[in-house]
Amino acid sequence: MSASTTKNTLLFVPLFVAPVAVYFWLWQSYAVNIPKWDDHALKAFVLGFEAAPTLFAKIQTLFAQHNEHRIFWTRLVTITDYALFGRLNYVHLMFVANAGLVLLSLILVRFFQKNNISVWAAAPIPFLIFTLAFWENTYWGMASVQNFWVVVWFVLTMHWLAQNRPNRFLLAFVSAFLCVFTSGNGLLACACGAVVLLAQCNWKRLTAWLAFSGALAFSYFITYQKPVGIPSPQLDAKVFLKGFLGFLGAAAECLATGDALKMCWFFGGLLLLISILLGSVAIYKFGRGWFKKPVLGGGYAPVFVVSVLVFVFFNALLVAYTRSGFGLMTLVTSRYKIYSVLLVATLFCYATALVWPYVQRSRTQFFYVFATLMPALFFFVAANHFHLNDTLKLRQFLVTSQFNNTTNTPAANDSVSVAVRRIYQPPAVFLDSLPIVTLPAPVFLPDSQNVSVLKSTDGFTFAMPNYQAQGLGDDGFYLIMRSKTRAYVFPAERLRREGIVNLLNFDGYFQDGAVVRVPFIETVPDYYRLHLLVRMAGKGRVFPTDKIVRMPPSKDAIVQSNW
Description:
Layout: H1 3-30, H2 41-51, H3 55-63, E1 65-66, E2 69-70, H4 72-85, H5 90-114, H6 124-129, H7 135-138, H8 141-162, H9 166-180, H10 188-199, H11 203-221, H12 237-248, H13 260-288, H14 300-323, H15 337-359, H16 365-407, H17 415-423, E3 452-455, E4 459-464, E5 476-482, E6 487-491, E7 514-519, E8 526-536, E9 539-551
Antiparallel strand pairs: 1-2, 3-4, 4-7, 5-6, 5-8, 8-9
């Protein structure tokens, strides 16, 4: 590495670190050690791992099926962290998962270096990746490790294979193994790896890879059972196309000022056209050296890019086919946005590789970097502002869910409950110190703040159109529902102020008004008196109302799960 290259790299470090630091600052501000949904399955795993009598039995628990996946990597991280700290900690899992984004970014930056492109051209990469666009993965222990690291392991596997070097080939075996046993779609690493080795005309490695892939597939499916609760695949062509484009363009949700789905469809269509254009160039370069030793199938860049594009598009097809039954908004959920952002980053990497020989010979290099960095910086700001509201709702959902579950569930002394309390300690939350069950003397809200109640087929909606309260974190408005024997707390939904002028506005982040939706399935049937909890600047106050509602039995079917 030349002295100038080293200097550029060192100067680039602060630019790379800045969005990473902002992201992890936001993460630690709102992360909470409370399990969400199938996070609870990790409790059973830890107990089962401890109880396993033999080493082979312990290995079986690591590789056991979870829904349609084998989450070995998630369980390995979990049991390692548990062994180190003596407690199951979901925040630690989130940290490991988010650290995977750092590795993913470094691989993409390395793409520039391997193609003799100034590292400054990679400046947009961290601003694309380190945002709250992935908020659900960012703050969800099990899902974060699985959904982030399957992408990291795949990209790392293609990075190793594309270099066509013996020691990198051995490393690819390790990353491919972890890719497969992180999430079901990790099996694509085997197929894409075979195509890469075929293009490199390395028959010995290809033979070894096929044998290795066959062993992985056999191990994955030998005891596989089809999970329950998955809707039938979507066969409607129009819905499938919308789901496919929405998946590809999901990253653009934060740019929408109206219908978010339409924005994602448009952006997905644009990315599809760009992918066809750049993918065709990459495939041409990829196959140009076919059967011509020792040519690297067109070089590192096209091999790597084609592999990642195949991975993203196959996932888009698979998810659109299997998940559209949940509704089209499911296709743009934050759990899948990593693929949309990866597509944008990969296309940017390859476009830069194609134009750099022309840009670097002129004085336009600075303008190219500036022109690509500004949209990435705008996306960084817009995504964080837009999805901060989602982040706050998730945190408040977790905090209130913990309160509802612990307050309304008698302390059990059976062996399972005792064992769970031994391995997992719920964190203290602000609701613990509030007088929820024994409420203060009535101090009613002003008439302008009265609550309207609307009943639907599956629950109640409580609205306060004139509610005015700002504040992030745990601040906000909560509905307390109290019967003679139980108390539930539900957070309100507030709308953020939209418009480009508000992208840096966090003091007045929310519009006036708040809504609380309470499904019947969330409470035990009974009569409940309503109270309002307003929390501002870290202090809460409870206001009784004159409203009483009857929560009937829910008609919704309970979704079967494995936790």
